[in-house]
Amino acid sequence: MAEPEQQVPQAVDSGVVARIVTDVYRLCLADDSGALADYIPELAAVQPDSFALCLATADGRVYGCGDVAASFTIQSISKPFTYALALADRGPAAVAERIDVEPSGEPFNEISLDPVTERPRNPMINAGAITAASLITGHDRTEKFERIRRCYSGFAGRELTMNAAVYASEARTGFRNRAIGYMLRSFGIIDSDPDEAVDTYFRQCSLDITCRDLALMAATLANNGLNPVTRERALSVALTEQVLSVMTTCGMYNAAGDWVTTVGLPAKSGVGGGILAVLPGQIGIAVYSPRLDKHGNSVRGVAACRELSKRLELHFLHVTRSGRTAIRAAYSVAEVPSRLQRTTDELAVLAEHGDRARVYELHGDLLFAGAERAVRAIEEQAGALEALVIDLRRVGEVSEIAVHMLDELQNELAAAGCRVAIVDPDSKMGHLVSSLDPNDPRGRVFIDRDTATEWCEDIVLDHHRPAGEPACTSMPIEDHPALAALSPDNRARLTKDFEVRTIARGEVIARRGSTRSGLYLILEGRVRITFEGADERTHRLVSLSAGMSFGEIPMLVGTPFVNEARAETSVRVAVLSPQRFDVLTEKAPELKLALLERLAAGAYAQMDAAVRAIAVRGGDY
Amino acid sequence: MAEPEQQVPQAVDSGVVARIVTDVYRLCLADDSGALADYIPELAAVQPDSFALCLATADGRVYGCGDVAASFTIQSISKPFTYALALADRGPAAVAERIDVEPSGEPFNEISLDPVTERPRNPMINAGAITAASLITGHDRTEKFERIRRCYSGFAGRELTMNAAVYASEARTGFRNRAIGYMLRSFGIIDSDPDEAVDTYFRQCSLDITCRDLALMAATLANNGLNPVTRERALSVALTEQVLSVMTTCGMYNAAGDWVTTVGLPAKSGVGGGILAVLPGQIGIAVYSPRLDKHGNSVRGVAACRELSKRLELHFLHVTRSGRTAIRAAYSVAEVPSRLQRTTDELAVLAEHGDRARVYELHGDLLFAGAERAVRAIEEQAGALEALVIDLRRVGEVSEIAVHMLDELQNELAAAGCRVAIVDPDSKMGHLVSSLDPNDPRGRVFIDRDTATEWCEDIVLDHHRPAGEPACTSMPIEDHPALAALSPDNRARLTKDFEVRTIARGEVIARRGSTRSGLYLILEGRVRITFEGADERTHRLVSLSAGMSFGEIPMLVGTPFVNEARAETSVRVAVLSPQRFDVLTEKAPELKLALLERLAAGAYAQMDAAVRAIAVRGGDY
User: Fold this and answer.
1) B585-606 burial string, b = 16+ CB within 10 Å, else e?
2) Of A431, A433, A351, A425, nearest to A395 (Cα)?
3) Residue A281's pLDDT band (boundaries 50, 70, 90)?
4) Can you tell me the distance from the alpha carbon of B507 to that of B566, in angstroms, rounded to the nearest whole number?
5) What is the least distance, in Å, from the CA of B305 to any CA of chain A?
6) What is the pTM of this model?
7) Where are the alpha helices (DSSP H) in A363-480?
8) Residue-level pLDDT at B250
9) Cα gap B1→B519, rounded to integer Å
10) Is A387 left (phi over 0), alpha (psi -120 to 50) or beta?
């Protein structure tokens, strides 16, 4: 219970958000209007000035001010939780046969049913709440109540206990609720002993909670039914949405409409002085102050929720632009090529036809509106496309409808002859796309965008490569462009200094940090130059193929390899060893200079292209 | 009006989303239950099978199926729009004195007021709607109605007209509404002629709309009151929120609670057969099908909204993770340095103390929950920080509370001796941070992150640079590290081949694409190497200072400059001209080789560091 004379707010912690909570607390502390509930002596006996305010985030951080550890009885705030348990126990359809979900426009304790449906108007009035209690599974009233107590405890993240004195008093004086119980029995809404249902209801209302407990219960609702502290699921996602829906229209007694307009948060209050409010996905709010207004809602509680909603802009209809900007970047493979270093012929084809393959990077949560934007943008280009990358790595949640829409889009594009590379290392799209069959006309799944882009380039090259010009995949050393331009004499002198080696796929050719190991001319296969990212994973800087070279700059300047070179396929290379290179330096410096100038030019252009590709893409400098 | 025998859905367009709309249309078309409104002959005379379904995005794209161009009277869907105009004309406080916002639990045409407040329960029942009509500004009924007509037309984006036959019939038979008008007059809720208010109400209900119009009206509400097609503001942001709030609890006659649970969209229906529903920020839905259920709502309309909400996951309490993940990346300046190339001494200081300056890149819309995460993460590090970059360039909307929180955070950090660089080229934070006073203890505003990071590095260097070791800012050519290591003879021979030049701040030293212009040793000042990004703006690749060099690789390999070099400050450089370089190549190849090896090593390391800084940062490969 609250300390007497408690007036100075006790901030639980410091910081920007804690100060905002404290400011609101101080502002509302000034109002001492309203009156304690007095229908039982226990409620009239609490410290009337007690006041606590907590704000909890959906990930479980609680900011609090005031008597956050003072106990009070949960009272009507229990209603949505027992309703939730009834929904879980019986299923929404069975519960809907007994309890409507319409705002009543009548006092919460009215002894009446809807004249047309002959059901309680909603689960937030006493008739609906007692019905919900009657629907809880259990052999007897002890087991039923224990299941309710455990359910609430799951939301709060600690074992709650009943206030025996309050229960005894409620049970002794609750004639009106007994009348409601018998009315429900007479209309067949309750099948079982109405006394048992009413007794269960009295017990649930008498559970002791603190403002901090209530904040975590709110945070659990905000977090889709998953307690963010204990990581225990208290309620399914679908039922959480349903309970919050009913709280939206019926939670605040007869002030529900005004509450939606001025606070705009699903909420529930109790005559014990508590209020719980929820911003789905984001925030839970709990207030305790026992003086009530004429509707039975805590005066300071309403004021604090209103002030927090206003200051923090928590109204649930508050519009943001999220979900609208699903496209993070869009470009053709001509604009941002893959890191596979292409031959001159290939580059010419891609320069002309590269706009037939486009990359769409998506981000944010992919709900309908965002997916619609993305699909619309892609459909507008679809007629001209032969291949497409959709990169989902930056996407958070992918809703079912977005999966369906992307899947449909893929069918549509496949029918038009365009294949789709989905970059989806975390399987956000699930089973819908086969990553196995390379001939699937719909496309493939990739774990990185670079490889997906390369695959799209290959499709464009297949379609548009001039006839009779197969890609060069293997060459004798004499034909390597690094030597081909030399005079026949010089070429002959150099060629015999090279050693031809075959390197197995996956093998490292030169490690990062290794000293100069040679000058390499690629005669067949692919070599991948990689670097380690901030994510501690290895990324491709560039891939090189037959006719290209590497190792020239380390060899020239005597520095270690700064990136790793690894055989991407089985590779055949011609290597000039450091020893031969040094001999060459002494005996024929001008030959060496000529060779190095050729090679360095190519290496520098490669490095430059890599800088450009990385820098250009993100638009993020 | 609808064509007779219209059964085959006319898809307005093709594509993934159009197909979803068509699917839902087909599904709902099958249900021909319900009855036409028949209280006036005009409503009973419409084509009962007519059916149209439109979905409009908040940016104005309309997907439609069926009789989307068939006219029908707006009827009760007019209520939220006249209420909106009344709020705009009189202000929310004055309107609240006349109309409550509580769900009524009574039929929409009840001749009664709330027994306690003696006001109409809400603006969606006839008593509230007639009161709203009476509050519209205007000299006479003609002007009042014309203002209403123009208001609706602003939402629809075209000039709407009244159906004279329906109006005449309503006016002839609307006894109940006249009774309500006189009741309102007798209670003083209407001050003026009740006949005029009722007549205005009849006229507004008789405005002809199409399903497409209704979709755009919904899209305008979804788009915060701004018509996304005409770009005209139909209603303020705050009033749009209020109107949607009231629609949430009171829009669907007596089925509001069930609607919130199963559809979960603010909505309004009319006995003409229309339904309008809104997902704030995202989607507007419109349906027309005149057969009504027992509540007076369109049978197919309710079914279509329910089905769309379920398939597209449009329920407004549907939780996403948006707003929770405000931090896009966080790292220290030791991990990702600025692109200013530091001296070895400086690098040593930054390696040891660089974790005292951190960069936080934020993204998404910055509402309270996201701002709380960001502020919390920064506060957790605050004790150890001397400088901080907060990069807002990727952030969308910044809410007022987020501005306040960041501002407070900056005060908090300033008090602890940590200065903050806000990267905010679009002034999202507005006036709150001075970008002018370089000594402001709170920090500065920057337009790019790289410069902000450099500023933070400077703070750390100022604090931790070993005493008596000022940064080297100027040197004679003999001391330049590129020459310092040569033998005295070689150094002397080379030095005289260099020419010392002074270059004014901002001047270009070497353009991208220019042929080799010389080998440059920086003796004083800073040179910035830049490249052009995909955004067609110029970005810094690296800045070089005294003791560093550039131009060596173009000189060595005879290629053009791939990036531009520009004087960042006034600069003093020593230049070896191409002519002298070529002479050197012939006369003393081994000297040239030695020089080039030294320089190329440095250049290569710089290029590598730049690749790494760019690649590492985004985490986006």
Assistant:
1) beeeeeebbbbbebbbbbbbeb
2) A425
3) confident
4) 6
5) 15
6) 0.78
7) 368-381, 400-415, 449-464
8) 86
9) 81
10) beta
Q: What is the pLDDT of residues B388-429, one digit of tens each?
A: 999 998 887 788 888 989 998 999 899 889 999 999 888 888
ipTM exceeding the 0.90 mark: no
CATH 2.60.120.10 is held by the domain B477-618: yes
Chain B residues with CB-CB distance to A399 below 8 A: 313
> Quick one: pLDDT at residue A320?
59
Residues B342 and A396: beta-carbon distance below 8 Å: no
Q: Catalytic pick from A201, A288, A331, A520? A: A201
**Token duo for residue A560:** 């270690």
Contacts of B106 in chain A (CB under 8 A): 105
Tens of pLDDT, residues A499-534: 999 999 989 988 877 777 788 899 999 898 887 765
The total number of residues written for chain A in this structure: 621
Whether B533 and chain A come into contact, CB under 8 Å, resolves to yes
pLDDT digits (tens, 9 = 90+) for A127-139: 999 999 999 999 9
Q: Could you tell me the CATH superfamily of domain A16-312?
A: DD-peptidase/beta-lactamase superfamily (3.40.710.10)
**Strand pairing report for B564-567 and B549-550:** unpaired
- Residue spans of the domains in chain A: they are 16-312, 327-464, 477-618
What is the spatial distance between Cα A512 and Cα A503, in angstroms, rounded to a whole number?
A: 18
Q: Low-confidence residues of chain B, pLDDT below 70? A: 1-13, 105, 253-254, 319-325, 431-438, 468-472, 485, 533-537, 553, 556-559, 589-621
Tell me if A428 sits within 8 A of A390, measured CB to CB.
no
Per-residue model confidence as pLDDT tens digits over B246-262: 998 888 866 777 888 88
Q: How far is B136 from chain A (nearest CA, A)?
A: 21
Q: Give B600's contacts (C-beta < 8 A, 6+ positions apart).
A: A553, A556, A557, A600, B552, B553, B556
Nearest CB to B619 within list A448, A534, A612: A534
Let me know how long chain B is.
Answer: 621
Collapse the DSSP code of A443 into the 3-class scheme (helix H, G, I; strand E, B; otherwise coil) and give the result. Answer: strand
The helix (run of H) or strand (run of E) holding residue A279 is: strand A274-279
pLDDT at residue number A9? 41
User: Tell me, what amino acid is at A536?
Assistant: E
**Separation of alpha carbons A317 and B242, rounded Å:** 9
- Asked if A574 and A499 count as a contact pair (C-beta separation under 8 A), the reply is yes
CATH number of A327-464: 3.30.750.24
- CB distance B573 to B503 below 8 Å: yes
Residue A122, chain B, CB below 8 Å: the answer is yes
A7 band by pLDDT with thresholds 50, 70 and 90: very low
Distance from the Cα of B161 to chain A's closest Cα (Å) equals 31
Question: Residue B469 in contact with residue B343, Cβ under 8 Å?
Answer: no
Tokens 């500004």 correspond to what residue? B137
Which residue's structure tokens are 């052009």?
Answer: B532
